[in-house]
Specification:
This protein has 152 residues and is α+β, with helices and mostly antiparallel strands. It has one domain: Aminopeptidase, CATH 3.40.630.30. Helices cover 30% and strands 37% of the residues. The strands form 2 sheets. It has a 7-stranded mixed β-sheet, with helices on both faces. The protein has a two-stranded antiparallel sheet with strand order 7-8. Bound molecules: coenzyme A (COA). The site of coenzyme A has 19 residues, from helix 1, strand 4, helix 3 and helix 4.
Length: 152
């Protein structure tokens, strides 16, 4: 599958529908877009995936959001986007890349480990603290954040 990955230069061009697949809070997504860098994946001019990264502390970049159009899941697009953004970050002075996923995110945990991330901790009740609504995924509450990291 031929995908083209592009860096976005305007927040207005960000694919909000896709970004909300990975995080139901439009307010949080907007705050990440203000400070972060967004890349999209396109097939034949259509946006099919997005990844959003943000510097969270000195020399640390976090992948805040990664999403692929639902009907195109499991075709390697998410992995291509994540590996691309890791290579881009490696060109900078960033020393650590972080990513987090909810406790029900088994596929995400597989994907992130395939891209080199290791589990470094669990932020208990992260989602209850940061999201007013309860979030459910795979039939269970998304309550704790599994924290993962790549040391460059
Ligand atoms: C998470 C997400 C981005 C993955 O994107 P994707 O394009 O479907 O993922 P890929 O096809 O690149 O799969 C990546 C790897 O995970 C593996 N994988 C995917 N689904 C799997 C499953 N059900 N069982 C086992 N492995 C699986 C694939 O085999 C692949 O590894 P491989 O290339 O070595 O075969 C996508 O599912 C998504 O948009 N989900 C909703 C939003 C979300 O939850 N985002 C993450 C939170 S920020």
């Amino acid at each position: 599958m031929d995908i083209t990955i592009k860096k976005l230069y305007s927040k207005a061009d960000a694919p909000m529908d896709l970004l909300l697949l990975a995080d139901p809070s439009e307010e949080l997504v907007n705050s990440y877009l203000d400070k972060g860098i967004c890349y999209t994946a396109e097939i034949d001019g259509e946006t099919v995936g997005v990844v959003l990264v943000m510097e969270t502390k000195a020399q640390t970049m976090e992948v805040m959001n990664l999403a692929v159009k639902e009907e195109l899941h499991n075709k390697g697009i998410g992995k291509q986007l994540l590996l691309y953004v890791i290579e881009e970050i490696k060109k900078s002075d960033i020393k650590t890349i972080e990513i987090g996923t909810g406790n029900p995110g088994v596929v995400q945990m597989l994907l992130y480990q395939k891209c080199g991330f290791r589990i470094v901790g669990i932020d208990f009740d992260f989602f209850r603290r940061t999201h007013p609504e309860r979030i459910y995924e795979n039939g269970i509450e998304c309550r704790d954040m599994i924290r993962m990291r790549i040391e460059l």
